[in-house]
Design a protein that fits this description.
Elements lengths: L3 H10 L6 H11 L7 H9 L7 H14 L3 E3 L7 E3 L5 E6 L5 E5 L3 H12 L8 E5 L2 H6 L1
Length: 141
């Protein structure tokens, strides 16, 4: 679980004020593996901050993505999804139900460094998404 003190430090290091909304949204995303949509984040954060608006949640999510604090993921239904885990890992995305699962990406940073060295590129951002049919959907067929 991400602690409030760590949360404040991370937000401040990234040049952000530590508002209640930002702290709650960040804490929620760092402590879930569900890859929620903006609306799912809103529904969960609203339980602790009843007065929060959807617009606030959406704006905070966009700021966090710009700062590199969270990832924005594409989804099969064109709804943006968000991930608090910014370490290199693979997303398995189901084309049937939209479920997203994380898979560890061993030596991910090393692979990116090799690619950068070989290509001469300065790599700023990367993501790994694999699309297919999840076990649950496959078993329904």
């Amino acid at each position: 679980m991400l602690m409030e003190k760590e949360n404040n430090t991370i937000l401040r290091k990234n040049g952000l004020k530590t508002t209640k909304a930002r702290k709650e949204i960040y804490t929620f995303l760092k402590n879930t593996y569900s890859h929620p949509s903006a609306f799912n984040v809103f529904e969960n954060v609203k339980k602790k901050l009843p007065g929060i608006s959807y617009a606030t949640v959406y704006n905070v999510l966009n700021i966090f993505v710009q700062k590199g604090l969270i990832q924005e993921l594409p989804a099969y239904d064109n709804k943006k999804r968000f991930d608090g885990n910014v370490e290199p890992h693979i997303h398995l995305i189901c084309l049937e139900c939209g479920k997203i699962e994380d898979v560890p990406f061993e030596n991910g940073k090393e692979l990116i460094e090799k690619i950068a060295k070989k290509s001469g590129w300065q790599i700023k951002k990367y993501d790994f998404n694999i699309y297919g049919i999840c076990v649950d959907c496959k078993n329904k067929s």
